[in-house]
DNA sequence: CGCTTCTGGTTGACATGTCACCGATCGCGG
DNA sequence: CCGCGATCGGTGACATGTCAACCAGAAGCG
C-alpha cells in the first residue's frame, strides 16, 4: 500500500485554496493602503486601538490585548513601542502585578481612531459586504469558526 | 438627513469580519511555521516555486510571475534576490526584451519544493479541508471570487 | 533619425513580523 | 522564609513587505 502518498488537493479544493490565498494577501494590503492614505493609522494600529476601545476603561493588560488580537507577544511589544513613540498609546505600570503593564489609549490615539474609522468601515462595506448575501456572510463566519477551531487555542 | 453617517457593520457582519481577520492572520502564520520547521522553504518561497513549476519550462518572465502571484514588483524583486542567494532560482537575461529577466527554477529549488510539498499539503488538508463540507468549499471559492472581483484588476 | 514617454525591473530606506533568548517577578512547595 | 519553575514582557538580529525614486531599454512620433 502507498499509504504515505500525500493527499493532494482535488481540483475544487485547489481552486478554492488559490483564490483564498490571493484574497488573504490582497484584501489586507488594500485596506492598509486606504487607511494610510486617509489617516495616520496603519491596519495593525487600527486593530490595536479597536480592541483597546472595546473596553470601557480604554485600558488593557498587555497579555489581554495579545489574547484578543491573537498576536505573538514580541510582535505586540514591538508594535506598542512604535505606537507609544507616536503618542497613540501609553504603557503604565500595573499595580496588581509587578511584571506586567497596562496599555492605555491616549487622547491622540482616540482622536486618530475616530478620524480613521468612518472611511475604513465604508471601504470594508464596499469591498466585502456589498457584494455578499446574508447567507454568504453566515458561511464566511462559519468557515472561519471551523478553521480557527482546528488551529487550536 | 444624516446621509454621511458611516454605514457601521451589523452584529452579524462584525462577527464574521473579526473572525475572518483572525483567520487571515493566523492560518498563514501557522502554515509558514510548519514549512520552516519541516523544510528549507518559507510560505512565500513555496508560492514562488509552485507558480514557476506550474509551467512546463519552469521559467517565467518576472512580470508574468508577478501577475500570477499578484505581488508588487518590488516585493518580487527583493524576494527573488533572496531566493537566488540561496540557490533556489536563477535570473537569466531575456532575449526578447533587453530590459527583462526570466526566472528559472534550479535543481535545488525543485528538490526543495518536492521535499516540502507533501507535509505542507497534508497540513492544509488537516487544518482546512478536513473540517469543511464540499458546500463550504464551494462557498469559500465563491466568496473569494466575489471579493477579488471587487478589488479590481 | 532624435526626442519624449512608457515599461520592466532594481535599489534603499523604512515599517512590520518572527525567533531565540534574556530578565524580572510571581506563586507555590518545602 | 527560601528556592525554583512558570509567567509577563522586552530585546536584538534578522526575514519579509512597502513606498518612492531611479535607470536602462523599448516604443511612439516628429
Automatic annotation (TrEMBL), chains A, B:
One of its GO terms (biological process) is response to stress. Residues 13-149 form the HTH marR-type domain. Gene3D superfamilies: Winged helix-like DNA-binding domain superfamily/Winged helix DNA-binding domain. It holds the Pfam family MarR_2. It comes from the Bacteria. One of its GO terms (molecular function) is DNA-binding transcription factor activity. This is MarR family transcriptional regulator.
Amino acid at each position: 500500500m502507498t499509504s504515505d502518498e500525500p493527499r493532494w488537493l482535488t481540483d475544487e479544493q485547489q481552486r478554492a485554496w488559490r483564490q483564498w490565498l490571493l484574497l488573504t494577501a490582497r484584501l489586507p494590503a488594500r485596506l492598509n493602503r486606504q487607511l494610510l492614505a486617509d489617516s495616520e493609522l496603519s491596519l495593525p494600529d487600527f486593530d490595536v486601538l479597536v480592541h483597546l476601545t472595546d473596553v470601557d476603561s480604554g485600558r488593557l493588560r498587555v497579555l489581554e490585548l495579545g489574547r484578543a488580537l491573537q498576536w505573538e507577544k514580541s510582535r505586540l511589544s514591538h508594535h506598542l513601542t512604535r505606537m507609544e513613540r507616536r503618542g497613540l498609546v501609553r504603557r503604565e505600570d500595573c499595580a496588581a502585578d509587578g511584571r506586567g503593564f497596562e496599555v492605555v489609549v491616549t487622547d491622540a490615539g482616540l482622536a486618530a481612531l475616530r478620524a480613521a474609522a468612518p472611511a475604513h468601515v465604508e471601504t470594508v462595506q464596499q469591498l466585502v459586504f456589498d457584494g455578499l448575501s446574508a447567507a454568504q456572510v453566515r458561511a464566511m463566519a462559519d468557515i472561519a469558526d471551523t478553521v480557527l477551531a482546528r488551529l487550536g487555542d
